[in-house]
Please model this.
Amino acid sequence: MPVEGQPLAAIYARVSSEKQEQEQTVASQLEALYQAVAMRGYALTAELVFVDEGYSGARLDRPGLERLRDVVAAVLVYAPDRLARHYAYQGDH
Model:
């Protein structure tokens, strides 16, 4: 539960292949993201965790990414290449 005045974070993790899914890289990505959120003093709720499994970064039609875009339409992103490989696809579509 966020504390009043504590900034919120949203996190996004993605794997695109069966091998990555079998090696649980989504779990390792999420763990690293949870740690980064905690180290920076941000709050995180379940509604702000977005995951896509089995979707290539070249595709824009990813359910988790769509939900993330809806939530953070006007927020700055540290690493836009996680959203899409091509700059033109990183914003609204």
In short: The longest helix spans residues 25-39. Helices lie at 18-22, 25-39, 63-71. The two ends are 32 Å apart (CA to CA).
